[in-house]
Amino acid sequence: MILLHSNSNVISIDMANIQNGTSFCSPLEPISRLTEVGGSSENINDISIEVKNIYKNYYSNNSGKFAGIGKSAFADRNSSVPLQESGISFSVQRGEIFGIIGPDGAGKTTLFRILTTLILANTGTAIVDGFDVVNDYKEIRKRVGYMPGKFSLYQDLTVEENLDFFATVFNTTVEENYELIKDIYQQIEPFKNRRAGKLSGGMKQKLALSCALIHKPSVLFLDEPTTGVDPVSRKEFWGMLKNLKAQGITILVSTPYMDEASLCDRIALIQNGQFLKIDTPKNIVSQYENKLWAVQSDNMYKLLTDLRANELTKNCFAFGDKIHISSQLNPSEGDLKTFDIEKIQNTLSNNGHNNIVIREIEPTIEDCFMQLSQK
Q: Which domains does the chain have, with CATH numbers?
């Protein structure tokens, strides 16, 4: 049993997954915010989310283990006392789509739960829409919308009943903020009398997004919103996010799909609780350090093994029906493009490979992620 504070009363609600929603509270004055993020000066009026040195470890300090956000450095494997705790820092501009891109278990959900005031970090500070996540958590819950990765609406209620319920919780009505959700809700309105549990994956996500927006939040947190959704619905969903951005809503979205990174204004690549890189997708791709080739042969498993054993190979990973490799050689030594291809092709032929195809390709965000994760 929990209490959600509205402007005029207190509503008692028994929710199985309250961490998947937000609440509201009495207004507070925004605290002053930092002006330096990542070493660069920014206009505080343009900053919607500001995180500085956030660290969270689900294990105890003396366990010698780490799982969460940030990083603990231990003296050695047998040491149970961390030498230091280093957190993550970043900022999100107002009206920006900021993507957190990384695999399962990287720390994306932990970060979202900290920023939506559902769990506490061990150290560090975070400001959301001008309010501190610890001291002003009630005001933050009024101002943000949170859509968790797992569908968490009431599955035995209809589409219309779920939307009405969340509107009532936030002391508003569907009619009052209908223009905000109109483009989304119109796609599921024909199924308004269908129980939420009977909707398709794409329809469930649209309903969850509508419920997260019904109180007109200024910041929207979307935790892997397109996981398990078909490609058409994924495309439609990102189109909706672009429309919400145009209305001035700040969107923090996480995804394990590297191809969705290009749809964000800026992204942070995350692995094992640490950010590998923060920049625009275009800048990250342009900073790829080596030439990249796609290689195929008639024996792909043996090809992967042989390429990884080759002294010319720096990075080598399977990408669908191809293997992407980058070379150890230094391009400054001369035009090595032909030399590299010939060397690799001769080596593979000598190892019994046939139908060898090698072509130079442009790197993707996934290639950049794999390269950065090896450092």
A: 2-284 (3.40.50.300), 289-373 (3.30.70.270)
Q: What angle, 0 to 180 degrees and rounded to 10, lies between the N-to-C axes of helices 159-169 and 201-213?
A: 20
Residue with tokens 């961490």: 19
Q: Cβ(168)–Cβ(215) under 8 Å?
A: no
Q: For the segment 322-351, what is each residue's pLDDT rounded down to a tens digit?
A: 999 887 655 555 444 444 677 788 888 888
The answer to whether 109 and 19 have CB atoms below 8 angstroms apart is no
The tokens describing 323, both together, are 């293997």
**SS3 (DSSP) at 213:** helix
Q: Is pTM beyond 0.70 here?
A: yes
Give the position of tokens 């050695």: 76
CA atoms of 316 and 327, how far apart (whole Å): 9
Nearest alpha-carbon partner for 118 in 249, 34, 17, 36: 17
**CB–CB of 13/24 below 8 Å?**
no
Place of tokens 């450095």: 73
Tokens of 34: 């930092």
- Residue 4 in 3-state DSSP? strand
Q: The tokens of 25 are what?
A: 């509270």
